[in-house]
Each structure stands twice: as structure tokens, then as C-alpha cells.
Design a protein that fits this description.
Blueprint: H1 2-7, H2 11-20, H3 26-36, H4 45-59, E1 82-94, E2 99-109, E3 115-120, H5 126-140, E4 146-150, E5 156-160, E6 163-166, H6 168-177, E7 180-184, H7 193-207, E8 211-212, H8 215-230, H9 242-249, E9 267-270, E10 276-279, E11 282-285, E12 297-302, E13 307-311, E14 317-322, E15 330-331, H10 341-352, H11 358-371, H12 376-389, H13 392-405, H14 410-425, H15 454-460
Parallel strand pairs: 1-4, 1-8, 4-7, 11-15
Antiparallel strand pairs: 1-2, 2-3, 5-6, 9-12, 10-11, 12-13, 13-14
Helix pairs in contact: 2-4, 3-4, 10-11, 10-12, 12-14, 13-14
């Protein structure tokens, strides 16, 4: 049939993804195809559905039964009136087949259904939540009048005789930004229907079946997914495209004036030269090397389970300790005393030694370390995985190309290797494009490159 002729070149890809994630929907498969293949023909969702059904039947990959239905609120609010926020978590799989829990923040403009997503390796603290709000408002190009949350959200300390008490940090943030708050009960789905759809949508259209590389890569993939699918496809409830509706709604949003500095909501402390901070007559460790001379600062907040969360100047969480009731104690395990840089250096040396030009490989990995110091371990391990996956000549060509083209990211190294390997194998007549996730460094308002390597095509051919 014409269906087979159109999508046949993608059967091997679809089969492998369904084998790894048999519960994937046809809509999710369609998104994967758009993400990985810039040459994907313009096919309807029905065509993809039929072909996925064909692949399942041909290769014996049944879909597990699922009887869950999404709840959709029907009443429409005025443009710019309200956004809804919720949090989710999901267990992903790493490249070495281990479980990796990720946490995510969703915000959705209620009228347009225009969505934002921000993911974290750690549970959300108040500071991280403030940062996520700021990222969402930048993405939306404005601030709605009212924000809606669950009553059990971490922005609340407790409920006192019917009054909801905000944490100090979030209260100062709300006062600065000037939006109104509405907290609804979990037993009141009428006021939370839309955003709960988004949480489920993120889990089962974006995260399910996706391999975790590192959190920066995942957030980049998340923004690309929003631009490609979540905000670009017709919404099932409204029958309108969120991005087109957002073009209207953004004119009704309050402007984002100057940038809010998240540390303004927190207390600053001085780091001592022995890499501890003083809090209420006790000393709490921070990682060795955090102290960078006199006046080195950190910022602290107290979590709802009475933990001291410590951040650096870049808003990165660097330590978390249970608060001690004693006096004069030093809190923090021995792992805070270890200099972890030596293990990273050993890993870089180990990976570099597997190339024909170890010196060039080491310099390449050090460039990645300089650009992504927090993720260098994941980046190096990802490249190590590719060394096992591809022939040595493919790996060496990929290294030379990435160095020459200044491509300093492991997932892009993998994409280049896939391109060279495909040329070598010539398994199909269809050219296999390279997935480059980092060509555009503007975080949000971009049209994603999908998997097109046009920026590098002149070098590749």
C-alpha cells in the first residue's frame, strides 16, 4: 500500500523503539519520527497510527492494555487570566540500563493551553521553583494575572485555621512579581483539570521510552518537544493549536520587566576556607573546592522536612543536610571531603586512550568539561558507549570532525558517528540525518532544527 511505501524506510527505527517501549502510543511514535528524521514526509496521524499497528502485528509487539482517560475542563477563561502549575516525577532509564528518577515542573496558560516544562535531577526546592517560574515567564513572554497550585505544594509552610502560609522565599517572590495566588484542594479536580493533563502528557508522550543522558540534554529535548509537538499540535479539547492561541494570549500577559535574582529570596552566608558554613552554631560542609577566597558566598533555604539546602552563585544546589539541634557540631559525610576531580580526570584519560589520537581526544573531552562541568561524567560515559557501539575508524573520524567543527557535546558526537556509520554501511537508500540538539543556543523562542544537520552539511559532504 501507499502507507507502506511512505513509512517503510522507518520500519526498523519504529520496531526498535516499540521493542524498547511497547506501551508507546502512535502519537508518541510520530513525535519520535519528527525528532529523529528531518526528511520525514508530511504524513497524517492516521497514517502513522496504521503503520504502527502494521509494525506491531508484523513483529509481534502488542500494546499493553491501558484504560486511563484524561480529564478535560471545558469552561474557558479570558486570555491572560490564569496559568496552572503542577509537579511530576518519572523513572527514566540511563544508557547503562539503570533507573534514573527525574522531577519536572509544568506551567500551562489556561486559555491557549500553551505549555512550559522544566526538569531536574533533584526534588524541587523553593528556590528551584522560583527559577522554574522565571524560566516559564520568559518562555511565555509575560506573566498571567493568577497562578493556580495544589494546597500541598512546597511553596506552603502549613495551613493555620484555614489560612495558607507561604514560605518566606516564595512570599517575597510573589510580592516582587505581583501575580495573585489560588490554591485548590486535591479533591477539587474541577479547578486543576488542564494542568494534570499536561503532567500525564509529559510522562507518556515525552519521557516514556527516552534514554537519560544528562539533565541539560533532557531540558533541551524538552524545549524542542514543546516547540515541535506539545504546543504545535491541535489540542484535543479546544481543537485549536496552542502556539497560535498563544500569539493572541501573550498580548494580554503582564510584562516581565527586570529579571528577578533568585538569591534575593534567600539568606546569604559566607563559606569558610575549610569549606563549611556556619548556621545556628553548627558547621555544615560544602564540597571541597567550593571556597574560592575571602568573601565566597553561598545561599541557604530550609526545606519543609527541616533540611538545610545550600546553593552556589549559579543557583546550583551544592549540599543538603539534616539540620542539627545540637551546638558546635560539624555536619556532612566524608564524601564532602573528597576531591572528586581526580576520578573525573581518570575517566577522561580512560576514554581518551581508546582513540588513535589520545591527545586530541583528551583535549576534546576537556573542552566539554569546560563547557559543562556538572555533566562531564555523563558526557564522557556517553562517548565511551559510542566507542563500544561503532567501528574504530568511525569513532576516529567522528572525533576529528567534532574537533574541527567545534561540536562539544556527547549526544552530537553520537549523531556524527551515526552519520559516518550509515555512510559506511549504506544499509538503505534513505540518507540518515544527524540529530543535533544544540545547534541553537537561544533557549526558548526558536524553531527547533529537528534532526537536520544543515548547519554542518557542507562539512559532511
Amino acid at each position: 500500500s501507499s502507507r507502506d511505501k511512505v513509512l517503510d524506510p522507518y520500519e526498523v527505527f519504529i520496531k526498535s523503539r516499540l521493542e524498547a517501549c511497547s506501551e508507546a502510543s502512535a502519537a508518541q511514535v510520530h513525535d519520535w519520527l519528527k525528532e529523529h528524521f528531518s526528511d520525514l514526509p508530511d504524513v497524517t496521524e492516521k497514517t502513522v497510527f496504521n503503520f504502527v499497528l502494521h509494525v506491531r502485528g508484523k513483529h509481534g509487539i502488542p500494546k499493553p492494555f491501558c484504560n486511563q482517560r484524561d480529564y478535560e475542563k471545558v469552561d474557558e477563561l479570558p486570555y491572560g487570566k490564569q496559568a496552572q502549575v503542577d509537579f511530576g516525577e518519572y523513572n527514566m532509564t540511563t544508557e547503562d540500563d539503570k533507573r534514573k528518577k527525574v522531577y519536572f515542573f509544568c506551567m500551562s496558560l489556561c486559555r491557549s493551553r500553551f505549555k512550559f516544562l522544566f526538569l531536574s535531577e533533584k526534588p524541587f526546592t523553593t528556590l528551584m521553583t522560583i527559577i522554574a517560574h522565571e524560566k516559564a515567564f520568559q518562555y511565555f513572554g509575560g506573566i498571567p494575572e493568577v497562578m493556580v497550585y495544589d494546597q500541598d505544594t512546597l511553596m506552603l509552610v502549613n495551613e493555620n485555621k484555614g489560612e495558607l502560609i507561604l514560605t518566606d522565599a516564595f512570599r517575597s517572590y510573589v510580592a516582587y512579581r505581583g501575580f495573585k495566588l489560588h490554591f485548590c484542594r486535591k479533591s477539587d479536580p474541577e479547578s486543576k483539570g488542564k494542568i494534570e493533563n499536561v503532567v500525564r502528557y509529559v510522562k507518556y508522550n515525552f519521557l516514556r521510552g527516552r534514554i537519560f543522558v544528562d539533565i541539560d540534554t533532557l531540558n533541551g529535548q524538552g524545549i524542542a518537544w514543546l516547540n515541535r509537538t506539545a504546543n504545535a499540535k491541535e489540542h484535543a479539547g479546544t481543537k485549536k493549536i496552542p502556539d497560535q492561541q498563544w500569539q493572541i494570549e501573550k498580548e494580554f500577559l503582564n510584562p516581565v520587566n527586570e529579571i528577578f535574582t533568585p538569591q534575593e529570596a534567600l539568606k546569604s552566608v559566607t563559606i569558610r576556607k575549610d569549606n563549611v558554613i556556619n548556621y545556628k552554631s553548627n558547621y555544615y560542609r560544602v564540597p571541597l573546592g567550593t571556597y574560592q577566597g575571602s568573601g565566597t558566598k553561598a545561599w541557604i533555604e530550609i526545606s519543609d522536612d527541616n533540611r538545610l539546602i545550600i546553593y552556589d552563585a549559579d543557583n546550583n544546589q551544592i549540599a543538603s543536610h539534616q539540620i542539627s539541634t545540637g551546638k558546635g557540631e560539624t555536619i556532612g559525610g566524608s564524601h564532602y571531603k573528597r576531591d572528586r576531580s581526580s576520578k573525573i580526570d581518570q575517566l577522561i584519560d580512560q576514554v581518551s586512550s581508546q582513540f588513535d589520537d589520545p591527545g586530541q581526544a583528551k583535549e576534546y573531552l576537556l573542552q566539554i568539561k569546560q563547557k559543562m562541568p556538572r555533566n562531564i561524567r555523563d558526557q564522557a560515559l556517553h562517548i565511551k558507549t559510542q566507542i563500544k557501539r561503532f567501528d574504530k575508524d568511525v569513532i576516529n573520524r567522528s572525533l576529528a570532525f567534532c574537533v574541527e567543527s567545534k561540536i562539544f557535546r556527547a549526544t552530537d558526537f553520537e549523531s556524527v558517528a551515526e552519520k559516518f556509520d550509515a555512510e559506511k554501511q549504506q544499509a538503505t537508500e534513505t540518507s540518515i540525518p544527524v540529530t543535533i540538539n544544540t545547534l541553537n543556543h537561544a533557549e526558548y523562542k526558536i524553531t527547533p532544527d529537528k534532526s537536520d544537520i544543515s548547519d554542518y552539511q557542507s562539512l559532511m559532504n
